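Re: Re: token formats

Sure, here are both.
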Amino acid sequence: MNLTFSFLYLAQVRVRRVRTYTSFKQMIADIGIHNLLPDFKGELDDAVDLYRSFGTTRGSYRDLEKEHGAVALDVEPLEPEDTDEDNISPGPHGLTPWTPRSRASTVY
């Protein structure tokens, strides 16, 4: 399965594993704070509060967690031979498309 996520740049990634949880607390406890939030200095409950503070146009993560639980995706960037760079369209809001050649400027 290939999915495209946008942050500061668009990235073509391969989803290696999908893990579903009933809550952020369960997800963070299973995967580990450092694996999800490498520079985070707080405890488990602090990390849960941080995740719940995020939001989207569909609602707060706190509300979405109650409705859907939590999902963790293990992803890896696609290598140049796995992508068709001629068919990568510009991202929303004028974001620069990520390509394997722009890897140096992309945070994974």
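Second one below.
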Amino acid sequence: MTTLKAKTNERFYREIQYKDSSGTAIDITGYSIDMDIKTKNGVMIENLSVGSGIALTTPLQGQFTVTVADCSAWITGMAVSDLVITDDSGNEVASETFNINIIQGITRV
């Protein structure tokens, strides 16, 4: 399982490209994307969707970003997340679950 890192005194930002099993980019024009970040016990840390933390940056090439500007209220420790991508016909595909190691930031910015 993949583990990402986040710090409570940093912006959380990831650029992602949605591809099929052969590695070809999928056009995500008109798609919705949702992402929940939760503690291992299921407590919600962040809920993101297109227009609220997720942006379709280059949809024809399957590219989107996930951005949380302020992570100061995030609960530290190992969190879990996945993405649910819904096409314009309503078909849903969930990504593999991944970890986010949330580390307490020390220096205030």
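The chain has a mean pLDDT of 96. The longest strand covers residues 77-86.
- S.
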